[in-house]
Write a structure and sequence with these properties.
By secondary structure, this protein is an all-alpha fold. 66% of the residues lie in helices and 2% in strands. Strands 1-2 form a two-stranded antiparallel ribbon.
């Protein structure tokens, strides 16, 4: 049986994260720490921080979200009308690049902040989730304990609005900025890749059309 890229990412991330729970050195070596990038050029931290998590709840939430959306998005990438044989490569590329781009605003803000650290795959997972919403905007989603009753095209904007508010006002030590920029990167990546590779798939037009049909317009 061939494992999907989504499951491979989940397995690798889970194993490394669990290893880091009881080994502070693993966390210290992989965590996103802006001064180490600014002063030591340790750019790998943009990517390795997505392999570690604060605790089991943090890990489970991210990996469950990735599993729920990743399999569908991975298959959509490989469909004949989108990227075909290049699909898996581009899916993996989107995930890895999202780890980097979702943290760029954070890096600019905290590049000399010796007290700032960030970890987790939330930004990349947000990219996958919003890619799923772009592909299937009428799928029902939910917030945390709220059951999946909200269409994706409503859930998405609400999520971004809530994340923006929390980024400005919350003191929960969660990098909401990474969620926002990861989500936007996922959408932007698909639109850009579809145009660059001259596919027949028109992401924005299809997104609007599916919403229009669901509303009976």
């Amino acid at each position: 049986m061939t494992l999907s890229l989504t499951l491979i990412i989940i397995i690798i991330t889970t194993l490394i994260s669990i290893g880091g729970f009881n080994n502070q050195k693993i966390k210290d070596d992989l965590i996103f720490y802006p001064p180490s990038i600014t002063q030591r050029n340790q750019w790998y931290r943009f990517f390795t921080c997505g392999l570690i998590h604060a605790d089991f709840i943090h890990l489970i939430f991210n990996m469950f979200s990735l599993y729920m959306f990743g399999e569908f998005v991975e298959m959509a990438f490989s469909s004949p009308i989108l990227f075909g044989e290049k699909g898996k490569f581009l899916y993996l590329g989107m995930y890895i690049l999202a780890l980097f781009f979702c943290l760029l605003p954070t890096f600019v803000k905290h590049k000399n902040d010796y007290y700032y650290r960030s970890l987790g795959a939330s930004g990349a997972v947000s990219a996958v989730v919003f890619a799923g919403i772009l592909f299937n905007p009428t799928a029902k989603l939910g917030f945390f304990i709220i059951p999946p009753i909200i269409p994706g095209y409503i859930f998405g904007p609400l999520y971004l609005i809530a994340s923006t508010y929390l980024e400005k006002n919350s003191r929960d030590n969660v990098n909401h900025s990474a969620h926002i920029w990861g989500a936007l990167f996922g959408i932007g990546f698909i639109i850009t890749a579809a145009a660059a590779l001259k596919t027949d798939y028109q992401p924005v037009e299809q997104f609007i059309e599916k919403i229009r049909i669901s509303l009976g317009l």
